[in-house]
Amino acid sequence: MKVTEHFKNSDKTLFTLEVLPPLKGENLKSLFNHIDPLMEFKPPFVDVTYHREEYIYKQRENGLLEKRTTRKRPGTVGICAAIQNHYKVDTVPHLICGGFSKEETENALIDLHFLGIDNVLVLRGDCVKSEQRFMPEPGGHNYASELIEQVVRMNNGCYLDDEQAFNNGTDFCVGVAGYPEKHFESPNMKSDLRWLKKKIDLGAEYIVTQMFFDNQKYFDFVHRCREEGITVPIIPGIKPLTTKSQLTVLPSFFHIEIPCELAEAVEDCADNKAAAQVGVEWAIQQSKELMAFGVPCLHYYSMGKSESVRKVAQALF
Ligand code: FAD
């Protein structure tokens, strides 16, 4: 079922989560062990992230460096199918521009369609770690909006190598990313919202936000989106802070701010156990306020750790 249908069919706030594929070499059991404790909160769908390749340099015997490509967390499509089969819930694979030609994207979408997966979260993806800025694959897409156009064309039965439309198109519900604190590359919020509006105008049906720790940033973002004519559901992304080091890691990686009150409370913690407890309490308060605001769904970033998300969900769902 489509994500938007889940929203329409429910009159209360839904619990959903985002998981990472296991590291290469691990098996599905480690992922299921992570998801199992969260299933009692009945997520109607689970998002699975996509991780592009990284370059590593190995020194050869002659001293020269050899550039190798590796993907640490492969398997997004297979994992989505496995979760659907195992838990009988829908899945939302994240689909990125980076590392994909249009042909590879088309093949991935055909696989997803045949596997009975009805949703995709369409993203540009970040640059490869060793590169300064995002570089599209030759023959690939520069922006998420271009990838949306390809998905929408396929939904209308138009494939890359054929002029005519086929009767059997795909039927994906498309979600996209939004940034209450602005995407880090964007010169200003107005410009970022202009491109976000373009993604919606092209056919995206809902937005999932980057994590934020200050609800006011989300409320302001929703307000500005509505002013720009963006009317689709805007799903808040919530991450319970779990370690002291995340006070610096999360802002540097995700380009977000941590409010003083939360940062000071975590700094005062003797250890990570105490910090995680502060993180859980903060996420519960955030979630309660967002539920009262009437959000259709809360999207929890579990990032490989289910314990804190479980504690938050126990208090709310
Ligand atoms: P876009 O919408 O393409 O925007 C990128 C930047 O370009 C923005 O600054 C935008 O304002 C600007 N822009 C957009 N269109 C144009 C245009 N036509 N001309 C000029 N400027 C333009 N990354 C992964 O690799 N894997 C994941 O699984 C993943 N999951 C995510 C889930 C969520 C909910 C979120 C919020 C992010 C996720 N990301 C993931 C990170 C995401 O890929 C990065 O934030 C990336 O840098 C931007 O992706 P986007 O889809 O927002 O890009």
What does this structure look like?
The chain has 317 residues and is α/β, with parallel strands linked by helices. The protein has a single domain, classed as Alpha-Beta Barrel (TIM Barrel), CATH 3.20.20. Helix content is 40%, strand content 18%. The strands form 2 sheets. Strands 1-2-5-6-7-8-9-10 form an 8-stranded parallel beta barrel, surrounded by 4 helices. Strands 3-4 form a two-stranded antiparallel sheet. Strand 7, helix 6 (189-202) and strand 8 (206-211) form a beta-alpha-beta unit. The mean pLDDT is 96. Flavin-adenine dinucleotide (FAD) is lined by residues 49-50, 52, 94, 96, 123-126, 143-145, 177, 183, 185-186, 191-192, 195, 199, 208, 210, 237.
